[in-house]
């Protein structure tokens, strides 16, 4: 009986303490999120549409009401930073890596330049990364190839250099990768064959060389393969279309491929282009 009463008293107290601790933690980190966003704003050098000047300020309401920012319903941490096509110029601060609840970042179609901060590799919850159509340079930091929750990964149409990391094999949730229209070179790592959910592979108009790993053609989820305008060599496998029931578009033009087009091409039943 005593134990039960103690339980009745202490259990709610314990829960309350946990709740307070959770609240404190979320508030601490909300401050971290705010600081990260203010740093992001500080790194923006031109905002001709005045997207951020009006309500991206610490004196205004919660950061969750800032244009382009979304927060989680329960924990009120920043889950999305989406400001595509906003004519923003600037670079990306390392502090973005502190937005530890971020699921989506979409800054495509702006004029961001400079390097991708390696700290983005800390965003372990990130599913959607779209920084395409900017002026980012340097190579893709190693850590970014380890963001295992990534589903959509778009860094194409930038001035990026470097190679595709073998760690790409750990991005098993990837559905779309777009890193074309860059200067990314080297060979396509065969680890890409691990990506069993991949629907679109776009590394066109880059500087790829070497052979196309044949296991790419075993990824049956693929709907589009775009590797045109590179320096890929070798011969296409005879069983090219044995495992590609969903392939709609295949563009390997403007490379150094030789040999004949495999007759198995007729087994890609959905091929349109
Ligand atoms: C912030 O700006 C956007 C766009 O101008 C507006 O829709 C939104 O209501 C503003 N939010 C606050 C809290 O002022
Ligand atoms: C990013 O925003 C652009 C413009 O609205 C949109 O076309 C694109 O699909 C978005 N990217 C992602 C990954 O949702
Ligand atoms: C915003 O960008 C678009 C497309 O790049 C351009 O046509 C437009 O003039 C820009 N607007 C401002 C205010 O800079
Ligand atoms: C956030 O990130 C920056 C740069 O990566 C770092 O200097 C800072 O201490 C981090 N932590 C907080 C709580 O803002
Ligand atoms: C990357 O861009 C920045 C800013 O435009 C520039 O200062 C830097 O020299 C560039 N780095 C490389 C390696 O091109
Ligand atoms: C390839 O990209 C360059 C810019 O990097 C562009 O000028 C050229 O038109 C592109 N070529 C194709 C075939 O898309
Ligand atoms: C593709 O899959 C088939 C059947 O599962 C297998 O026999 C073949 O070795 C695979 N090819 C590659 C290059 O992984
Ligand atoms: C393409 O690869 C060949 C060797 O396969 C090499 O001789 C040539 O210089 C490369 N071209 C470019 C533009 O990288
Ligand atoms: C393709 O080119 C390579 C050299 O790059 C050569 O070894 C091979 O025999 C060629 N294959 C065909 C079918 O022409
Ligand atoms: C990214 C970040 O700042 N995370 C912190 C969230 O709050 C807890 C508790 O205060 C810290 O341990 C984390 O480092």
Automatic annotation (TrEMBL):
Pfam families, A to Z: LRR_1, LRRNT_2
Membrane topology classification: Single-pass type I membrane protein
Signal sequence coordinates: 1-24
SMART domains: LRR_TYP
InterPro entries linked: DNA_repair-toleration, Leu-rich_rpt, Leu-rich_rpt_typical-subtyp, LRR_dom_sf, LRR_N_plant-typ
Location of this chain's protein in the cell: Membrane
Protein name: Leucine-rich repeat-containing N-terminal plant-type domain-containing protein
């Amino acid at each position: 009986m005593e134990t039960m009463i103690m339980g009745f008293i202490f259990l709610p107290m314990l829960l309350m303490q946990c709740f307070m601790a959770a609240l404190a933690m979320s508030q601490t980190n909300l401050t971290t999120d705010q600081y990260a966003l203010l740093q992001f704003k500080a790194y923006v050098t031109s905002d001709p549409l005045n997207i951020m000047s009006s309500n991206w300020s610490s004196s205004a309401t919660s950061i969750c009401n800032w244009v382009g920012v979304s927060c989680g319903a329960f924990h009120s941490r920043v889950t999305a930073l989406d400001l595509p096509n906003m004519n923003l110029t600037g670079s990306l601060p390392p502090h973005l890596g502190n937005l530890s609840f971020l699921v989506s970042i979409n800054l495509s179609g702006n004029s961001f330049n400079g390097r991708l901060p390696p700290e983005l590799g800390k965003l372990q919850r990130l599913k959607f990364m779209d920084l395409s159509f900017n002026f980012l340079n340097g190579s893709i930091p190693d850590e970014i190839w380890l963001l295992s929750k990534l589903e959509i990964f778009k860094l194409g149409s930038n001035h990026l250099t470097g190679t595709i990391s073998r760690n790409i094999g750990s991005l098993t949730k990837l559905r779309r990768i777009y890193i074309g229209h860059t200067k990314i070179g080297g060979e396509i790592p065969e680890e890409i064959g691990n990506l069993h959910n991949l629907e679109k592979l776009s590394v066109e108009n880059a500087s790829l060389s070497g052979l196309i790993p044949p296991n790419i053609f075993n990824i049956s989820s693929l709907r589009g393969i775009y590797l045109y305008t590179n320096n890929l060599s070798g011969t296409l496998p005879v069983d090219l279309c044995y495992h590609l029931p969903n392939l709609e578009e295949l563009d390997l033009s403007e490379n150094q491929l030789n040999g004949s087009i495999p007759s198995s091409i007729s087994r890609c039943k959905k091929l349109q282009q």
